[in-house]
Design goal:
- The structure is a single chain.
- This protein is of the alpha+beta class and 279 residues long.
- The protein has a domain at 95-275.
- The protein contains five helices and nine strands, in the order αβαββααβββαβββ.
- It has a three-stranded antiparallel β-sheet, with helices on one face. It has a three-stranded antiparallel β-sheet with strand order 4-9-7, covered by helices on one side.
- β5 and β6 form a beta hairpin.
- α3 packs antiparallel against α5 (249-256).
- The radius of gyration is 27 Å and the shape is globular.
- The protein binds zinc ion (ZN).
- Residues 47-91 have a biased composition (Pro residues).
- Keywords: Signal.
- Residues 34-46 have a biased composition (Low complexity).
Amino acid sequence: MRTRRPAGPAGALAGALLLAGCVAPGPGEPAPTPRSSAASTVAPAPTRAPSPTQTPTPAPSPTADPALAPAPPPDGAPAPAPAEPVQPPEPAFAATSAPIGPELAARMAPSWRAGCPVPLEELRYLTLTHRGFGGEVVTGELVVHADAVEAVTGVFRALFEAGYPIRSMRLVDDFDADDDASMAADNTSAFNCRAVAGTSSWSEHAYGRAIDLNPVENPYVSGAGVFPPAGAPFADRPQAPGVVHPGDAVVRAFAAAGWGWGGTWRGAKDYQHFSATGR
Ligand SMILES: [Zn+2]
């Protein structure tokens, strides 16, 4: 178990030491052994421990203020030079597309079965870079129809460049293909071999040509009904992160690919829903 260290010089020092300790040998390099003096030259050998005649330094304690009393280096080791802050390069958008292999087919058992309108061979597994709600760059996944790969990839590139945040983007199979559970988790998804809610007609999701985007921020609203229920605060479409509005960068990105938005439907509005057919 690791304990939480306070920020400040002591914390920075601990981080630097931790980093130094995390450098693993590369492939083909011998692992250092405790007796290998050559390999241990990376870390200076500890100098003698402070003697009782030296000016006592306050020992670190849970109540010590690290800003006032920096903790001494462990074992009397010389303090390393302050680490230079490393500015990582701005991450770029990346996307992959692959056929559904046996392993993925097994994972997709909840969302696909014999009798679905599209065979697995016509579906593709995508990984797509997107932003999280904290601005972080993460990789999500979607299953879409093979003929939608280019359009969907272009849309998500545009969403990434617009800084549009996506809460979660995992296959509905992680929610046992339960649309209510996926929506409640604010999960963005595409393929799901299911009927339109309340009907016996295949949903556009059953063809892999529809995407539900941030369902909590963009719920399905029918009269007083809001789905998922957690989307109730967003039913009247506030200006908030993730909330899609007419003509915004999200709607424009899908429109550029020829996809329509359920937020334009007469009657019930499906604000999370974008599809190739507009249905
Ligand atoms: Zn939908």
